[in-house]
């Protein structure tokens, strides 16, 4: 029977993984507060504890859903971001190598520089614009350098019913303000944690049977929108699903990136080409609107 070690169990993706991974075997799900007493150390900042956890548990699969995901905050605390997003995945990869585990990890569209308009393939040149993107890319490199079989899923614009995300921010702001200003020149695909978790479980099953499936994959919902288009869709759908919801904002004004300065630069083109994922795992990735609608129906 497989033993699966899940790190970051309380995040958007981690929470959904608890559900999707449970049928695969014995699941040991940790968060940053988990200590030896309840089955290991789940703090990505404690590199020695993390390593000990893997060596003691000897899991068949390690799924790392924990990360430093506060994009602007990472500019102020690059060392913390580097430890969580780069050093910890490196330690996990090395320990996985020692005990023979398959390591599953998540990365981001923010490893790219956002040039052009075409969806990026996995082998496209990277060029992160932010500390978050750079540290996530360092994490990818640390995993591939360890030389053990792994799955790295680069995804984008993640949302879930549980946890904080852009869609929920828009819903909150639209109830407080008359007008929202939202960038309309950054493009990507909002991707549900539920979809990521289901696809991960499916891919793990396949990778345990067939080592050739290992590597880096783009895993994102189909279609594309801008943050502005996403915000409009969220508010329009919310109005339809819950007509008595008081939405103050009458306008979601489109603005260019230059008019919305943030500490971290974000890519203009976050489109991910998911052909490799589809061809390898044979899974249909639905249009982004479907999951967003479902999430809104759940939370409203
Ligand atoms: N969110 C997004 O838009 C995107 C995310 N990704 C990647 O997907 C993965 C999952 O992201 P998502 O679920 O959205 O992220 P969340 O921010 O929802 O969850 C991240 C989790 O990491 C945990 N964490 C933070 N610091 C530590 C630590 N020191 N030790 C252990 N756990 C820690 C957090 O714990 P706590 O709850 O206690 O803070 C949280 O549960 C990440 O690798 C992320 O980089 C990729 C593309 C887009
Ligand atoms: C709140 C707000 C944001 N924006 C812009 C800023 C930014 O360009 C974009 C998204 O803002 P956020 O800060 O919510 O999202 P951000 O934290 O940049 O989201 C990213 O998170 C990391 C973890 C990832 O890996 C990425 O795929 C991506 O999902 O929307 C507006 O234009 N108006 C607003 O009112």
From TrEMBL:
Pfam families: RmlD_sub_bind. Residues 3-299 form the RmlD-like substrate binding domain. SUPFAM superfamilies: NAD(P)-binding Rossmann-fold domains (SSF51735). Keywords: NADP, Oxidoreductase. It catalyses: dTDP-beta-L-rhamnose + NADP(+) = dTDP-4-dehydro-beta-L-rhamnose + NADPH + H(+). InterPro entries: dTDP_dehydrorham_reduct, NAD(P)-bd_dom_sf, RmlD-like-bd. Pathway: Carbohydrate biosynthesis; dTDP-L-rhamnose biosynthesis. GO terms for molecular function: dTDP-4-dehydrorhamnose reductase activity. The keyword NADP applies. Its EC number is 1.1.1.133. Its cofactor is Mg(2+). Binds 1 Mg(2+) ion per monomer. Catalyzes the reduction of dTDP-6-deoxy-L-lyxo-4-hexulose to yield dTDP-L-rhamnose. Belongs to the dTDP-4-dehydrorhamnose reductase family. This is dTDP-4-dehydrorhamnose reductase. The lineage of its organism: Bacteria, Pseudomonadati, Pseudomonadota, Betaproteobacteria, Burkholderiales.
């Amino acid at each position: 029977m497989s033993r699966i070690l899940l790190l970051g169990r309380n995040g958007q993706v981690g929470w959904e993984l608890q559900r999707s991974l449970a049928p695969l075997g014995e699941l040991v799900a940790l968060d940053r507060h988990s200590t030896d007493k309840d089955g290991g150390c789940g703090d990505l900042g404690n590199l020695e504890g993390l390593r000990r956890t893997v060596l003691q548990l000897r899991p068949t699969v390690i799924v790392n859903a924990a990360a430093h995901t506060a994009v602007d905050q990472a500019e102020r605390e690059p060392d913390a971001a580097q430890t969580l997003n780069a050093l910890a995945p490196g330690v996990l990869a090395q320990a996985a190598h020692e005990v023979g585990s398959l390591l599953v990890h998540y990365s981001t569209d923010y490893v790219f520089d956002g040039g052009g308009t075409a969806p990026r393939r996995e082998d496209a040149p990277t060029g992160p614009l932010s500390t978050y993107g750079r540290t996530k890319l360092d994490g990818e490199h640390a995993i591939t350098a360890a030389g053990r079989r792994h799955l790295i899923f680069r995804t984008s614009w993640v949302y879930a019913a549980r946890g904080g995300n852009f869609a929920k921010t828009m819903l909150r702001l639209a109830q407080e303000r008359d007008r929202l200003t939202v960038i309309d020149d950054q493009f990507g695909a909002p991707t549900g944690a539920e979809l990521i978790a289901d696809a991960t479980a499916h891919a793990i099953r396949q990778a345990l049977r067939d080592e050739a499936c290992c590597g880096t994959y783009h895993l994102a919902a189909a279609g594309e929108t801008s943050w502005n288009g996403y915000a409009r869709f969220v508010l329009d759908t919310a109005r339809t699903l819950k007509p008595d919801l008081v939405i103050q904002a009458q306008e979601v004004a489109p603005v260019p990136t230059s008019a919305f300065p943030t500490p971290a630069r974000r890519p203009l083109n976050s489109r991910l080409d998911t052909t490799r994922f589809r061809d390898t795992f044979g899974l249909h990735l639905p249009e982004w609107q479907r999951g967003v609608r479902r999430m809104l129906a759940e939370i409203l």
